[in-house]
């Protein structure tokens, strides 16, 4: 049988800067597979197929029905196992190796499913631009989802060349950053890139997130010293991005780090990332143990140490307000998810009930 009949539509040569870098943990997990299997990493996701980079090729493949049935959908950054049997025309993803982190956000609009941004990240650059994009409240949202993901956030303030007061903006970011590093750069002028390189260690995976037009793809091009990603001139219009990057893409930097470019998003929902909220508001977490009630919500409870700290000027009022907003949002999301699950359960029982009735009727008829 020829290569053409294989179910993966493309057998590309690897795109520049997309060689596979498996980390040692994944290599070990994969070594349990013997037979016609190959390991790879998901470099891009298309509507129904995935680009997977393997040791020396890139394949466009689908996932097995069995994997879909159990609701396992590969994400960019996932290490996957491909069943590769060219002789029978089979080439598909049959397993996803355990993830060490997963970055998700709440879906915009009505749906109540979380959207996976990427998997197996070590560090996430939360990119903002000095100028009108800068917004501490939005940064808090990003910090929440990154803290909840298991990866470490770094706040990157890009376009320092455009702002006279880049220092002042950085100071604003530091105020809400807690222990999270804040780096100021200009990707266009290639200023401060060496500070980013501190985080781009071999075998580490870094993803860039942030609004459209803040310069994520420009940063990738600057780090690769090559125009691998399209960028779009925001200045010609209104400083707002044009959603230039539409597909998540993974690249390997010369030093061995893997970097993932993401499409910019208009608004960032935190989903049910409650786990990340405490870490995003360390000053609130610090006073909370002093509250009279253990499950104090810091709204109007007597003996609330957090409210006292706000009144005494230790915690800015906006921070507590933002905390409340995010808590409410994550609780709402959790509730929605629970209702969704219950509905599915209900449907399932209804179906089982119907099936049982049918069997019973069949039996009656056979008598
Ligand atoms: N002045 C200045 N412009 C920059 C800098 N970095 C990026 N830009 C410009 O900002 C515009 C948008 O950059 P992109 O890299 O396309 O932004 P993006 O974040 O990838 O946007 P999406 O793909 O839409 O999410 C381009 O015109 C870049 O040249 C910078 O440091 N300084
Ligand atoms: Mg882009
Ligand atoms: Zn309290």
Automatic annotation (TrEMBL):
PANTHER family: SMALL RIBOSOMAL SUBUNIT BIOGENESIS GTPASE RSGA (PTHR32120:SF10). SUPFAM superfamilies: Nucleic acid-binding proteins (SSF50249), P-loop containing nucleoside triphosphate hydrolases (SSF52540). InterPro entries: G_CP_dom (IPR030378), NA-bd_OB-fold (IPR012340), P-loop_NTPase (IPR027417), Ribosome_biogen_GTPase_RsgA (IPR004881), RsgA_GTPase_dom (IPR010914). GO terms for biological process: ribosome biogenesis. GO terms for molecular function: GTP binding; GTPase activity; metal ion binding; rRNA binding. Residues 1-20 are annotated as: Disordered. Residues 113-268 form the CP-type G domain. The keyword Signal does not apply. This is Ribosome biogenesis GTPase RsgA. Residues 119-266 form the EngC GTPase domain. The keyword Zinc applies. It comes from Methanoplanus limicola DSM 2279. NCBIfam families: ribosome small subunit-dependent GTPase A. Keywords: Cytoplasm, GTP-binding, Hydrolase, Metal-binding, Nucleotide-binding, Ribosome biogenesis, RNA-binding, rRNA-binding, Zinc.
């Amino acid at each position: 049988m020829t290569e053409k009949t294989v179910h993966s539509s493309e057998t590309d040569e690897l795109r520049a800067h997309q060689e596979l870098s498996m980390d040692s943990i994944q290599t070990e997990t994969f070594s349990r597979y013997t037979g016609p299997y190959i390991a790879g990493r998901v470099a891009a996701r298309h509507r129904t197929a995935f680009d997977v980079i393997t040791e020396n090729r890139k394949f466009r493949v689908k996932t097995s029905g069995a994997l879909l049935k159990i609701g396992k959908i590969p994400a960019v950054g996932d290490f996957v196992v491909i069943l590769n049997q060219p002789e029978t025309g089979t080439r598909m993803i049959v397993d996803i190796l355990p993830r060490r982190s997963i970055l998700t956000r709440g879906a915009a609009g009505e749906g109540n499913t979380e959207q996976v941004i990427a998997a197996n990240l070590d560090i996430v650059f939360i990119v903002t631009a000095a100028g009108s994009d800068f917004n501490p409240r939005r940064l808090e949202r990003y910090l929440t989802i990154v803290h909840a993901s298991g990866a470490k956030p770094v706040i990157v303030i890009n376009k320092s060349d455009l702002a006279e007061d880049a220092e002042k903006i950085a100071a604003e970011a530091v105020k809400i950053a807690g222990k999270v590093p804040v780096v100021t750069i200009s990707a266009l002028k290639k200023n401060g890139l060496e500070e980013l390189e501190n985080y781009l260690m071999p075998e580490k995976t870094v993803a860039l997130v942030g609004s459209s037009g803040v310069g994520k793809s420009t940063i990738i091009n600057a780090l690769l010293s090559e125009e691998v990603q399209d960028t779009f001139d925001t200045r010609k219009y209104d400083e707002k991005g044009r959603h230039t990057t539409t597909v998540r893409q993974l690249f390997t930097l010369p030093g061995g780090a893997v970097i993932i470019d993401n499409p910019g998003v208009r608004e960032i929902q935190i989903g049910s990332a409650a786990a990340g909220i405490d870490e995003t508001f360390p000053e609130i977490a610090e006073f909370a143990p002093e509250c009279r009630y253990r499950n104090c919500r810091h709204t109007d409870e007597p003996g609330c140490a957090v409210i006292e700290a706000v009144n005494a000027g230790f915690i800015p009022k906006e921070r507590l307000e933002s905390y409340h907003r995010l808590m409410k949002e994550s609780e709402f999301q959790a509730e929605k998810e629970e209702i969704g699950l219950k509905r599915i359960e209900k449907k399932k029982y209804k179906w089982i009930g119907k099936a049982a009735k049918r069997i019973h009727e069949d039996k009656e008829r056979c008598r």
